DNA sequence: GCTTTCACCTGTGTGC
DNA sequence: TGCACACAGGTGAAAG
């Protein structure tokens, strides 16, 4: 499942293989893959043909490719991409057979012999075209202006994050998954960072002291950087980078998916609890529940 | 205004 | 063998 490290790996691949190339043709093979582009597949293709792609950018789990312009005001449009749960952006040779779940194909006006493919089994992801926030040097698409900066962004505001946590009347894992508070954290890295911080997922955000939230942020960054270093996390080949290679971080997970296995700190059997239509993995000894009856 | 719930999707695995 | 069902989970609209 692509979270921030996986998306960053894809961004780097796009930067290397796609940036600076000019779009020659676009095939939309499944309309759901561009459902956020309200004007439809024909408009999506027509607006892209002839445009040169700028440097790939990322905020949290969103990626975008600015469409270069000659004006001094920066890019005014950008292709926005979200991989959802199973999306892949692959750079493939023209002659490579179509993937079973190929949704969008973008061909380029050059002789490099490769094309960009958006492949997505569960169709939660997609591409779309948007105006950018006026004056934004990175060409941030307007529809994701509400997404918070991610913890690997040098401009991430730790003091504001802590203040927001204290203001909220919610629990810590919900807050970590709220992309308007902090972006890029999904179910896997939330469980990993909470385990490292010895925090229970149901702990109230209002009870977190500044040192505790600082420590949590440190662990979020650690686990993301470690995943980045090995190319992201992959469980079932649904996630691969732009060259089709899987990440290896799943071998290093301490919490996620380790139900009944011994905690790597204290040896207690790890537990899984249904949580918001998904699962939370935690150590019942290291990560004490906030209320005696809240977990067993 | 803030917080919580649910629909959207498809492939895989399990139990009967 | 075939069927029903649970599960994976990010996002945003709708409900509370």
Overview of this structure, please?
The chain has 2 domains: 4-144, MutM-like, N-terminal (N-terminal domain of MutM-like DNA repair proteins, Alpha-Beta Barrel); 158-282, Helicase, Ruva Protein, domain 3 (Orthogonal Bundle). The protein has helices at 4-17, 41-48, 158-167, 172-177, 187-197, 210-229, and strands at 23-28, 57-59, 62-66, 77-82, 87-93, 102-108, 114-120, 126-131, 271-275, 278-282. The chain has a 4-stranded antiparallel β-sheet. The protein contains 6 helices and 10 strands, in the order H-E-H-E-E-E-E-E-E-E-H-H-H-H-E-E. Residues 234-239 have low confidence and may be disordered. The longest helix has 20 residues, at 210-229. With 296 residues, it is of the alpha+beta class. The structure holds a DNA duplex (16 and 16 nucleotides).
Indicate the mean pLDDT. 88
CATH topology of the largest domain: N-terminal domain of MutM-like DNA repair proteins
**H and E order:** HEHEEEEEEEHHHHEE
Radius of gyration: 20 Å
CATH architecture name of the largest domain: Alpha-Beta Barrel
How does the overall form come out from the CA principal axes? globular
- N-end to C-end Cα span: 29 Å
Structural class: alpha+beta
- What is the class of the largest domain in the CATH system? Alpha Beta
Kindly give the count of domains: 2
Query: What oligomeric state do the depicted chains represent?
Result: single chain
Residue windows where pLDDT falls under 50 for at least 5 positions: 234-239
The main pleated sheet reads as: 4 strands, antiparallel
E-strand count? 10
């Amino acid at each position: 499942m692509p979270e921030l490290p996986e998306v960053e790996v894809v961004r780097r691949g796009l930067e290397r293989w796609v940036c600076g190339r000019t779009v020659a043709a676009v095939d939309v093979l499944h309309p759901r893959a561009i459902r956020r582009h309200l004007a439809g597949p024909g408009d999506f293709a027509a607006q892209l043909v002839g445009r040169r792609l700028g440097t790939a950018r990322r905020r949290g789990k969103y990626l975008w490719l600015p469409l270069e312009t000659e004006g001094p005001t920066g890019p005014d449009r950008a292709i926005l991409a979200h991989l959802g749960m199973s999306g892949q952006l692959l750079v493939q040779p023209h002659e490579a057979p179509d993937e079973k779940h190929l949704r969008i194909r973008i061909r380029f006006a050059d002789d490099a012999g490769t094309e960009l493919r958006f492949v997505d089994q569960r169709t939660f992801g997609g591409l779309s075209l948007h105006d950018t926030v006026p004056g934004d040097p990175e060409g941030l698409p307007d529809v994701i202006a509400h997404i918070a900066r991610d913890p690997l962004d040098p401009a991430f505001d730790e003091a504001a994050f802590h203040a927001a946590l204290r203001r909220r009347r919610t629990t810590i894992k919900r807050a970590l998954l709220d992309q308007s508070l902090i972006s890029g954290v999904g179910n896997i890295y939330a469980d990993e960072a909470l385990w490292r911080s010895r925090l229970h997922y149901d702990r109230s955000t209002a009870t977190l002291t500044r040192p505790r939230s600082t420590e949590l942020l440190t662990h979020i960054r650690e686990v993301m950087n470690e995943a980045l270093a090995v190319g992201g996390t992959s469980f079932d080949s649904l996630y691969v980078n732009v060259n089709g290679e899987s990440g290896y971080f799943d071998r290093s997970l301490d919490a996620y998916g380790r139900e009944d296995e011994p905690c790597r700190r204290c040896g207690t059997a790890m537990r899984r609890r249904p949580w918001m239509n998904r699962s939370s993995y935690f150590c019942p000894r290291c990560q004490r529940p906030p209320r005696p009856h809240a977990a067993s």
